Probable DNA 3'-5' helicase RecG (Isoptericola halotolerans), 750 residues
Amino acid sequence: MTARLAEPLTTTLGKRAAGPLAKMGLETVDDLLRHYPRRYGDPGRMTDMDRLQLGEHVTVMARVASATVRPMRSRGGALLQATVTDGRHELSLTFFAKRAGALRPHEDKLRPGRSGLFTGVVSDYRGSRQLTHPDYVLVGVDADDDEEAMVEASRPIPIYPATASVPTWRIQRAVRTVLDPLTEDDVVDPVPDEVRARLGLPTRLDALRAVHVPDSAEHWQRGRRRLRFEEAFVLQAALAQRRARAASEEATARPPRAAGTGGLLADFDAALPFALTDGQRTVGDELAAELARPRPMQRLLQGEVGSGKTVVALRAMLQVVDAGGQAALLAPTEVLAAQHARTLRALLGPLAEGGMLGGAAHGTRVALLTGSLGAAARKEALLSAASGEAGIVVGTHALLGDKVQFADLGLVVVDEQHRFGVEQRDALRDKGRVAPHLLVMTATPIPRTVAMTVFGDLTTSTLTEIPAGRSGIASHVVPAANPRWMERVWEKVREEVDAGRRAYVVCPRIHPDDDVPGGGPKAPPELEEMPDLLDLTDGEPASDRAPLRAVLEVADMLRGTPRLDGVEIGVLHGQMPPGEKDAAMSRFASGEAPVLVSTTVVEVGVDVPEATVMVVLDADRFGISQLHQLRGRIGRGADPGLCLLVSTAQPGTPAAARVEALAATTDGFELATLDLELRSEGDVLGAAQSGRSSSLRLLRVVKDADLIAQARAEAAGVVEADPGLDGHPVLARAIAAQLDAEQEEYLERA
Ligand code: ADP
Ligand code: MG
């Protein structure tokens, strides 16, 4: 950054003006220039003073008749009242401030006799027309002549994210004060000149002027596009550098055993009770070849819910164990980690009982390492990881702890990656003596540009096929207000339970919470059961809605429902101690408690093949991807799944459209795209836990797909030619600043 951009606003604007801006996090000239307008107001056409309509945005040409500052006795603070006239009609201008001093600059400019253009929204005060905090351009002050005043007044009006103490017009003035004197030398550009020239983009300074002081709508659009490109470019350059660094890193090659020479993988494949799908085979070959190279694999495996990612990952792990290394599997929650360990042991059978009576001679061990283990169990798990006795170590982020040592970590598999940040990935990769191979699995399919933005340093494999023999899932929307339908819902649950199957009942909250009508959970929910309820109220006031259904209340209600007499009702939510969670899960899996009332803690990965029904209460309040993920918990065995989406949404609302879309398709890619279209970018990136929101202010991950692809290609070219970016110091600094911001956000979140 140049000295000019790094200058504190206190120096440029003075302490008084800079103070409130600092409260908004704007401390330097650069901060302020990156505070982009949220939208642009129409400057309005010139209006005759005798045609001022209430509520209309107008611009009038008039002369100042009087202007006086006086204190407001009733409210405190001060008031500047001015009158302007076109010779026949009068209009008042009103400005409020905490202190009279703040109004002096206006008073100074609005001298009687001066003329200019005044812009604002017409309101009524005691029967006369007025403009409150109008924008104005005075001839001889802000503009040399009438004509220039017209140009100034016809600019689109930037509307900034503002606060009560710093209104948008004050931000606008501050921006102009710092922007007007800047020259090209003051504003360095992370986008290299040759890239800019080739793509015909304006300079950074021109782009800043365009978005903050536009001549026309076309002008600010052009500027904004260029700034979006810049954001995409810096991000993609950072990702290209990560890729390049990984490509030059060394890793231990873990080639598959030659055919006919035995090994865990060969034994596993021979004993597998089902045939792999074509997709599992293709992706398996991809992984096998990459693990055989002396460069760290950096791969993202995305797949439809239920497409069988676990088996693919396990086969990769076995190849590594066969080659003498260890594999670590990271899950986002303890429930999932414990379940993964159980699943892997079950899939491996005697192959996971190395060194035990009845175990395979060359078998290995699956160790589970979570934060809730007792001291003895923990010590044993740590020991088996450090000695190499455990070929596979499963855990949560506790695996990132310093105390955990591996004998020879060859592969890290991260399941349901969107819960893990880049930093956590790196921390785990640092655990090997050389970089381990890395396989990241996402819970749901994600659109291409999101993959490019959030996981842009990884190459992608995709599983689209669902294994044969699944009977699929039927989904229906059930109106909550219809008692007969609700009766039928519980009847259906009973029928399935009587047939020896299981039912999930999912609620958005844990506790009934009567004093917060329609509000969210009282205690901050754990990450693992964060119901995705953000921004889904569709603008409806919270007080107009019935309270959300809560786990504890619904469980009580079901226990008292005659239809479910004699059926054991289990409960699962994130505030239960880990031991109780495990117990609830196994009682459900075994059928002892065949109905499980839970929060979204069952969202990812939980695998109980006998579960056939899922009732989602307040389904209209969940996000699409989350519902799709939840629904993936059923229909995993031979019996068809039935998902009942109980909704309170009024027909025709976006909420109703969401649940209907979900009932209509089970295509994860289609739903993921729809989901993104309905969300704001912050949500997308927030949900991805990428921590990149602070550097992406204007870029939209879905709508700017073309820009992202273009930036990715350009950035790859620049990094390839100059991997250290020695010839691009501005770009290198922008990347470093972005990483700092990420680090900071990560620490704040932790
Ligand atoms: P996800 O991709 O959602 O993580 P899982 O790996 O949990 O899916 O697999 C879902 C279920 O399908 C598991 O019970 C698994 O054993 C089973 N499965 C995996 N691959 C196949 C296959 N090729 N044929 C039949 N069943 C399979
Ligand atoms: Mg899974």
